[in-house]
């Protein structure tokens, strides 16, 4: 998949290479004389293009691993996701020893599971190729093109008035700098005698918050009203499932994409937060930015999305 780097992201001393993630011949020159690779590429979770997910997350990851081995890369750190163990039901303080989801909630989760397995199974201390997977959850931060813009667009269309369920479900959100911090710690600790080799690690803000409180803080911070009317979770999930099935049936004839998919309803209405104890013990992980500060900095980065802007 070709990557487009906007000019504003160009940095002195940083070389940008554009190419297809699945094209090993394009990757080999970029990995020449490189000892460490952070593999962060993935389509946006909301996409419904299964072929794209399989191409990038599975085929692309296989190619990255092959290219790393052929060029002598010593360390590969994968950006995985805590969703690899999520099936749409409650997870409270989940640890890394939870089994992979047998019924993934979407194509993103399905292919991230396979991607993580590929990377962790490729770890080979004897050959000097070490791997680790970082599992963030609910990444947010300044200028992110997904979470806040989508939330504001929904609010502007008058569709952020309702809370799914009783509103007490706790969820992990992770400020982007904490995600980066976790990746760097993993890269620094990755060594033949390290316990982190070939393992996954949850990286979050370690401050579970009510899902709807987080959404309300962002919306109110940008001048929009917080959602306040409650809808039964089972009712909304059932309707979302019905619409999703209808969209599948009509896909050959009509392009119909429901706003609320079963996956989005599950993410909004269930508990899903994770333990960072393993990362604390093995890597010395500790969030560097609090949830409160992260939300404030995120809101400040979107002056153009404020109410009335």
Folded structure, characterized:
The chain is an alpha/beta fold and 309 residues long. It has one domain (7-305): Rossmann fold (3-Layer(aba) Sandwich), CATH 3.40.50.720. It has ten helices and twelve strands. It has helices at 24-30, 50-71, 107-121, 147-156, 176-189, 211-221, 233-250, 262-269, 277-283, 291-300, and strands at residues 36-39, 75-79, 91-94, 130-136, 139-140, 162-164, 170-171, 174-175, 200-203, 209-210, 229-231, 272-274. Strands 1-2-4-9 form a four-stranded parallel sheet, with helices on both faces. Strands 3-12 form a two-stranded parallel sheet. Residues 1-5 have low confidence and may be disordered.
Sheet-strand content, in percent, reads: 5-15%
Mean pLDDT: 93
Strand order, main sheet: write it out: 1-2-4-9
Largest sheet: 4 strands, parallel
CATH topology: Rossmann fold
Low-confidence stretches: 1-5
CATH class: Alpha Beta
Tally of separate domains = 1
């Amino acid at each position: 998949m070709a990557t487009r780097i906007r000019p504003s992201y160009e940095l002195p001393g940083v070389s940008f290479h554009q190419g297809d993630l699945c094209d090993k011949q394009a990757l080999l020159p970029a990995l020449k004389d490189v000892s460490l690779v952070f593999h962060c590429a993935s389509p946006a979770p909301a996409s419904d293009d299964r072929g794209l997910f399989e191409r990038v997350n599975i085929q692309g990851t296989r190619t990255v691993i092959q290219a790393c081995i052929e060029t002598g890369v010593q360390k590969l750190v994968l950006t995985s996701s805590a969703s690899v163990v999520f099936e749409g039901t409650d997870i409270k303080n989940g640890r890394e020893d939870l089994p992979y989801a047998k019924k993934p909630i979407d194509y993103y989760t399905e292919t991230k599971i396979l991607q993580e397995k590929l990377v962790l199974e490729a770890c080979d201390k004897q050959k000097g190729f070490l791997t680790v997977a970082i599992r963030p959850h609910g990444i947010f931060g300044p200028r992110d093109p997904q979470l806040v813009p989508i939330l504001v667009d929904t609010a502007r269309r008058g569709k952020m008035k309702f809370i799914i369920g009783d509103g007490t479900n706790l969820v992990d959100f992770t400020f982007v700098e904490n995600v980066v911090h976790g990746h760097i710690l993993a890269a620094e600790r990755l060594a033949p005698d390290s316990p982190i080799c070939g393992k996954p690690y949850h990286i979050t803000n370690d401050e579970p918050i009510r899902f709807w409180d987080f959404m309300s803080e962002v919306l109110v911070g940008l001048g929009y009203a917080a959602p306040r009317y409650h809808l039964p979770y089972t009712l909304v999930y059932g309707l979302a499932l019905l619409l999703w099935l209808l969209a599948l049936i009509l896909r050959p004839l009509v392009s119909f994409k429901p706003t609320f998919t079963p996956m989005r309803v599950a993410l909004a209405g269930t508990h899903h937060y994770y333990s960072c104890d393993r990362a604390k013990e093995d890597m010395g992980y500790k969030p560097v930015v609090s949830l409160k500060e992260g939300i404030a900095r995120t809101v400040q980065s979107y002056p153009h999305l404020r109410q009335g802007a």
